Amino acid sequence: SEKSLESLVSIGNICRSPIAEAVFRKLVTDEKLENKWRTDSAAVSDWNVGRFPDSRALSCLRNHGIETAHKARQITKEDFQTFDHILCMDESNLRDLNRKSNQVKDCKAKIELLGTYDPQKQLIIEDPYYGSEKDFETVYEQCLRCCKAFLEKYH
């Protein structure tokens, strides 16, 4: 069966993108589609490479019955060549990714904002790093809505 590949990207890969990755992985597992998707997340920057997600992100996921063992990594040239979709959180991610993809021969990834899929039209998923637990919950809810809609479109 044809694998669709999805990578979710944020600046540091410790708050938003690991939440989105874990949410998407749970959705495809619940739908028994895990063999059709390869899901990963990455950072535009190299600030947090090797680090586990923010403890508030982990506790937010745990509150929703989701575990993740993700460690932050930086996006690579190969990601642009192997992933079908690269979904990011905000305009600065989008700019950075488009710039990086222009330096990659045979980039096949479709790069877009995850928020494009939000039925509630919240285009930007704000970084909750300097916020409260409530901000992490908001990110979770946005990711869940967007990932569901994305999966419906491409499943």
From TrEMBL:
Active site: R16, D127
UniProt lineage: Eukaryota, Metazoa, Chordata, Craniata, Vertebrata
Main location: cytoplasm
Any one Gene Ontology molecular-function term assigned to this protein's record: non-membrane spanning protein tyrosine phosphatase activity
Protein name: Low molecular weight phosphotyrosine protein phosphatase
Domain of life: Eukaryota
Domain Phosphotyrosine protein phosphatase I span(s) in chain numbering: 9-153
Organism: Rhodinocichla rosea
GO cellular component, one term: cytoplasm
